[in-house]
Specification:
This protein has about 375 residues and is α/β, with parallel strands linked by helices. About 40% of the residues lie in helices and about 15% in strands. The protein has twelve helices and ten strands. The strands form two sheets. An eight-stranded parallel beta barrel has the order 1-2-3-6-7-8-9-10, surrounded by five helices.
Length: about 375
Amino acid sequence: MKTNATQPRFSVLLLMFLLGSFGMVKGQELFPVRGFCIAAPGTAQLSTFIRFIDEELASRKVNTLVLRVDFNYQFKSRSELSEIGALSKKDVQKIVEVCKKHGIRVIPQINLLGHQSWANKTGNLLKIYPEFDETPHVKIPEKYEWPNADGLYCKSYCPLHPDVHKVVFAMVDEICDVFEADAFHAGMDEVFYIGDDKCPRCSGRDKAELFANEVNKISNHLSLKKRQLWIWGDRLLDGKVTGLGAWEASMNNTHRAVDLIDKGVMICDWHYERPDQTAVYFAMKGLSVITCPWRKPDNAVAQAKDLVNSRKQATPELKSRLQGMMQTVWSGADSFLDEFYGKKVASAESESACFRALFAEINNNQMPKP
């Protein structure tokens, strides 16, 4: 019987392909969410940002882009809140198009509840609607310093004001529509002002219930259009018991809200100075969670290894909730792009260095093992 001389070689190639495919599937299973979070770019850097998605996010198999939009969009529903020079609908459609090309899920973010001011600048929501302010008696100083007598970090809106959701939900719906999004990120991190003693609506109320009710109100609104709510997880951790403190966890008793919020909410669990392992805590509470590093490459790699080990050793129920990782960028899109493309020097501990290290580690787990 005559044999085909190419058959063994073909079989080896096929086996290599199948092993490679298995390794890729296996790696992707370990990191169902491979995310990147950054502020929406300015119009001047839009083309560079689209190039970054097309070449850098796609090549690293990033499948989720959380884009912090806030007021950097030309809202039709609430035009009074848009920043000058904000992104147009056509600009957003360009971002959506390149993400669709690579199968990247886009999730827009507008900070809700907290982060309604920064340093000596009041955000557009409270600037236009000062009646929504949870602490109107706390004045924004000309020169901001921390710590300060008022405990002012960022302002919050009052979650019980009867008109606040008419305004913010109009923006949420519009931004989700324009991004064709099936999820929305509401921020909700570092909420220091909640249930203030001088608020005529919130005074005396349980802060955990106030926080949980706001989360659930947003989640319920999104669910009407089959959209998922994402939030940062710090307010759901006990800063005293864990020793995590007031920034990466709560010192004002909102942590009990972890047992009160909708279990369909995605938790973005950020730890930047140490690779603290709190993702399993959220999973054990019945919540899906992703781990989020920032600018320390060694921490990001350690967090990725921890996630791999946790998923390998977890029960099927817990494993399904440990959803992956997301690199966060807080310097702004323009600054990050300049750093990434070498227009300014990046230190060993920088956002771009962390991004490169994290996805090198993630994709190392996607390669077939010899």
